[in-house]
Design goal:
The chain is mainly α. About 55% of the residues lie in helices and about 5% in strands. The protein folds into two domains: about 90 residues, no CATH class; about 55 residues, no CATH class. The chain has nine helices and four strands; from the N terminus they run ααβαααααβαβαβ.
């Protein structure tokens, strides 16, 4: 079969048409660039908002304000803020939209009263951001240190005295025994008996 110039021209035209079909148009490129620019600006804004959110103690009013800023929806706002506070103790928000997500109510929960939501999702009235770096849920909610202070058997310069995990004033049986020994050794001076110390961030 002989290939003529007409065949060659036709083949080139078909090839060019295919390239044009595959290639992204200038309009599509402009749209993609606009989307990428918007995502980048939105990401920076989110980063700044979260930094501001965690820069001060977190209360219900600040959570509600953040929810309104992220999504202009005031329906069940107090209930959603309560639920969000409950989860902000356990998880760190990486974007302002995470706060909205933490507060999302199921249809059944929307029907519950404010008191019922409070019982279902207990949360402190104020969250100290400094407490959120601690390792366990119990520590985040109420960190209590051994009454022996610097004499605690678990004392560490970074973490201070050991954490009390029971109602005892001491973090362990060892510290309780040490307190009795100190009390006996010092005579009239008693080991601390005023309960565990509340951690001050």
């Amino acid at each position: 079969m002989q290939i003529t110039d007409v065949d060659r021209i036709a083949a080139k035209e078909l090839t060019q048409q295919e390239r044009n079909r595959i290639a992204m148009s200038d309009v599509a490129k402009a749209k993609l660039k606009a989307i990428n620019d918007h995502d980048r600006i939105d990401g920076k804004a989110n980063e700044e908002l979260i930094k501001q959110f965690y820069s001060r103690p977190i209360n219900f009013e600040r959570v509600m304000d953040s929810m309104i800023r992220a999504r202009n929806d005031s329906a069940d706002l107090r209930k959603r803020a309560l639920r969000a506070m409950h989860f902000l103790i356990r998880f760190k928000a990486t974007t302002i939209h995470d706060i909205v997500f933490f507060g999302e109510l199921s249809p059944d929960e929307s029907e519950l009263s404010l008191d019922a939501i409070t019982r279902k999702y207990p949360a402190p009235e104020v969250i100290d951001p400094g407490m959120l770096a601690l390792s366990t849920k119990a520590e985040r909610i109420a960190v209590r240190r051994c009454a022996l202070g610097t004499r605690c058997m678990r004392f560490d310069k970074k973490t201070k005295a050991g954490v009390c995990k029971t109602r005892s004033a001491y973090c362990s049986d060892g510290c309780k025994g040490r307190a009795k020994f100190i009390q006996a050794a010092l005579g009239r001076e008693k080991a601390p008996q005023n309960g565990c110390q509340q951690l001050v961030a």
